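=== RUN LOG ===
request id: a7f3
mode: sequence -> structure
chains: 1
length: 329
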Amino acid sequence: MHRPPTFVTPPRSAVLLLTALTTLAALATLTACAGDAEDDKPPSTPSGVTAQAASATSVHVMWDRSFDNKAVTGYEVYRKGTKVKSLPGSKHMVDVDGLAPRTAYSFTVRARDAAGNLSAPSAPISVTTPAPAPDDRRAPSRPAKVKGRTDGGTAVTLTWERADDDTGVTSYDIYQEDSRIHSVSGTETGARVTGLRPGTVYTFTVRARDAADNSSPDSNPVDLTTPAAPGDSGGSTAPTDLEASARKGAVELRWTPPRTGAPVKEHQLYLNGRLATTIVWGAEPPAGTAVYTMTVTDEPGTRYSIKLRAKLPDGKWGDFSAQRTVVVR
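=== RESULT ===
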């Protein structure tokens, strides 16, 4: 005997749960669709583009950062409409090499976002490479009396005296620690560096360069600490007054540990940007100037970049000191 099927009505709680799950699934779908909406808005056009002939065959191009509704992921540099360089979004300068001497060039820059949108080209900037200097192997003299001042928490202004060269200085390169971050014409005796972080110690040096790409020795270093951001009441925890002197087989370091409210028992020593050793003073750390002698076995002429940071009472590592450069004897 055929019996009709029996239907069981689910409990009210199960119905409510199923309805809630269905609603959440629908909302998730809508959210995903909204998040996957195509980004068709290009970044802003790069501004502040400059081009400086760094030598007879190279030009240094710089620009200010662009803005985007999400993020700028890269920049493209064009020479007369042809792309010659692609860079990540963190870079705002580049050297264009392989150029011809005594030739006029025009450069533009475009910003790119993650969706591949390109900004409009910047205003073109023109530059002419100088004549070559055949067999010029003499580097310019080092720029003298480099000084600096902070301009708020994110910029500094540097000045210096002109360097001498047998054929003429074509540009001055500004270095922050060991990285070239800015270049200006050989006729300039000052530069403004932007894009810095508040409450940070920076060490700047300047080098002169001629048309044959010979670079001078480093100028005297200038240490500048940008003011802390508003609301940041914490002082700098960086060691100060760092000095480095070389003698045969050794480098002697002197510095003043930071004031942390307790004796500083440990410092980390960095060479050429990498941790080399941890200096542990033990139970009796120096109360004033700290002195440390580092044995070196590298050949004379080896260049070291040196900086320190102290271990704070809470166990964290503090800010880095200004950087010093020393050449092994």
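=== NOTES ===
The chain has one helix and 21 strands.
The radius of gyration is 29 Å.
=== END ===
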